[in-house]
Amino acid sequence: MGISPTTHAESVDFVMLYIVAISVVLLLGITAAMIYFVFKYHRKKGHEPVDIHGNLILEIVWIAIPTLLVLSMFYFGYASFRETRDIPENPLVVKVTAQMWHFGFEYENGKKSDTLYVPLNAGVDLEMRSVDVNHAFYIPAFRIKEDIINGKTNHLYFTPKEIGSYDVACAEYCGLNHSAMYTKVKVVSDTAFTKWYGGSWLPKKN
């Protein structure tokens, strides 16, 4: 397996596999129990039904176990969600403008592009605005998505971990050509980015 494009992608994939694994185990367990009880308690001639009273220990177990499983899913899911809300140290700030049906990117030195260029292993802070209707900035390979609301500035943070070119799509229906609202995020080496950027992009230290 190759390196994940971001650490966030790794955590999202883990949460997904964790939930699927628990679901499969529960499915097999419940199915096995159903088959067992079908054969054990199928109707027999001369069999008199007997009242079965509650079992406190069993009731506690089948309440406690599902509760713990659900809480563990919530914990891992929330921990993954927090990664997109924690501001990276000394981030590269890029202003993202969304409009029907195009994404535009502006960097702190005034450079503009239709493609999002970011340096490898650098924290990125996207300041996203819409000039018309609502849009959504979605990078499937990074497992991140954030709505872009007209009249509001939303932020999206990530740290790319692998050089490459990744699709960016609008994930909020925004009109006739919504399905064509695509661009790319290109992760390049620090040297290549500095050359493209036209100088050092690192923020000045006080």
Characterise the protein shown here.
It is a single chain. Helix content is 34%, strand content 27%. The chain contains three helices and ten strands. The protein has helices spanning 7-40, 56-83, 190-197, and strands spanning 92-99, 102-107, 112-113, 116-119, 124-130, 135-139, 144-148, 154-158, 164-170, 182-188. It has a five-stranded mixed sheet, with no helix packed on it. The longest helix is centred in the N-terminal third of the chain and has 34 residues, at 7-40. It is elongated, with a radius of gyration of 25 Å.
Topology:
Layout: H1 7-40, H2 56-83, E1 92-99, E2 102-107, E3 112-113, E4 116-119, E5 124-130, E6 135-139, E7 144-148, E8 154-158, E9 164-170, E10 182-188, H3 190-197
Parallel strand pairs: 1-5, 4-10
Antiparallel strand pairs: 1-2, 2-3, 5-8, 6-7, 6-9, 9-10
Helix pairs in contact: 1-2
End-to-end distance, in Å? 42 Å
Question: Would you state the CATH class of the largest domain?
Answer: Mainly Beta
Shape type: elongated
**CATH-defined architecture of the largest domain:** Sandwich
The CATH homologous superfamily of the largest domain corresponds to Cupredoxins -  blue copper proteins
Q: Please tell me the overall pLDDT.
A: 86
Radius of gyration: 25 Å
Question: Which key terms come to mind for this protein?
Answer:
206 residues, alpha+beta, Immunoglobulin-like, five-stranded mixed β-sheet, 3 helices, elongated
